Amino acid sequence: MTTAGTPPTPGNGPLSGVRVVELAGIGPGPFAAMLLADLGADVVRVDRPGGPGLAIDPAHDVTNRNKRSVLVDLKAPDGPARVLDLAERADILVEGYRPGVAERLGVGPGDCHARNPRLVYGRMTGWGQDGPLARRAGHDIAYIALTGTLGMIGRPDEPPAVPANLLGDYAGGSLYLVVGVLAALHHARATGTGQVVDAAIVDGTAHLSAMIHGMLAAGGWQDRRAANLLDGGCPYYGTYETADRRYMAVGALEGKFYEEFLHLLGLDDLVPARKDWTRWGELRERIATAFASRTRDEWTAVFEGSDACVAPVLGLGEAPYHPHLAARGTFTDHGGITQPAPAPRFSATPTAVRTGPARPGADTAAVARDWGIPDRPADDPDDLVTDRG
User: Fold this and answer.
1) CA pair distance 212, 207, nearest whole angstrom
2) Active-site option among 42, 61, 169, 379
């Protein structure tokens, strides 16, 4: 069975006209390709029979929105040639295999550059393409653990808090890959020469901590949790529980914001404690007691319209309905799925969620037509494993 393909939508986003091949994987690679697709690139995802590990139902995998999909078995005799046909016509290729795997499959940088010297070949891994751990398995939590960033997060008397997979996979991985391939694309268009972009989560996550390392060297940061201005050690930069067991977030760092914060809490007598570390325990305790006296919504109303830098801690299901986010359209509904809208925003080349998640193999014929490559029958998408829990 072959379903109708999704046509590209030219003119949407600043990357309109850029062609991207994504070799299907999980985590940061698909998210990076989604960002390129959100920005207007024509992203063709090369899915494998059986689907990637840890896959969710393709109908709900919004990291595959704005993309098209072809189905290729890279272990079949003609599999590598089909990918190289795409690579020959692409500007960017993104893969997330362990080092050496793409080469063994016949779709590594050497194979692709032999067909297309201008290609930007983006490699997304946790450990990087070289080093003692390069060929070892891993996931976000292990990568950020080695960089020192995981050890910064959480209470001092508890294990480090796990920040989902946002810090490593997406901030230290996907975003650095996107910056890298776009910089390399700029170079390729200026010189006619492509290159390999080695985006390692350990490198990107370490890079995110640049300011902290500067503060550490200057003696302005202690290498332990909840002992510093920005890690929960400061009583006016953190979270507090409310009467209904919800939370408020406080970031009243500057003096005038701090004073307004304490005034609205009814704690004006504590203004002198701002820079007196010996009083921070007292300050934290009294702030906590105050917040525990009312519900989250009551405190939200108290701080509404103020410059106290206080906000309610919302759940994922609540966030789309916050008045500010709703007014900006920070979230959007497409195909029955509420999801974050593309970001950032552009005045001349606006972006949008143009299509829902690409169904594996659904666009084989359309991509062959649009990219000018041989049309081969798509494998039956219904034969794919589409939900691995």
Assistant:
1) 10
2) 169
CA atoms in the 13 A half-sphere facing the CB of 208:
23
Q: Is 91 labeled as catalytic in the residue annotation?
A: no
Exposed / middle / buried, residue 56 (Cβ in 10 Å: 0-12, 13-18, 19+): middle
Assess whether 169 carries a catalytic annotation: yes
Q: Is pTM beyond 0.70 here?
A: yes
Catalytic residue among 113, 139, 187, 322: 139
Mapped onto helix, strand or coil, the DSSP state of residue 27 is coil
| One pLDDT digit (tens) per residue for the chain, 389 residues | 233 445 554 458 999 999 999 999 999 999 999 999 999 999 999 999 987 656 688 899 999 999 999 999 999 999 999 999 999 999 999 999 999 999 999 999 999 999 999 999 999 999 999 999 999 999 999 999 999 999 999 999 999 999 999 999 999 999 999 999 999 999 999 999 999 999 999 999 999 999 999 999 999 999 999 999 999 999 999 999 999 999 999 999 999 999 999 999 999 999 999 999 999 999 999 999 999 999 999 999 999 999 999 999 999 999 999 999 999 999 999 999 999 999 999 999 999 999 999 999 999 999 999 999 976 554 444 433 322 22
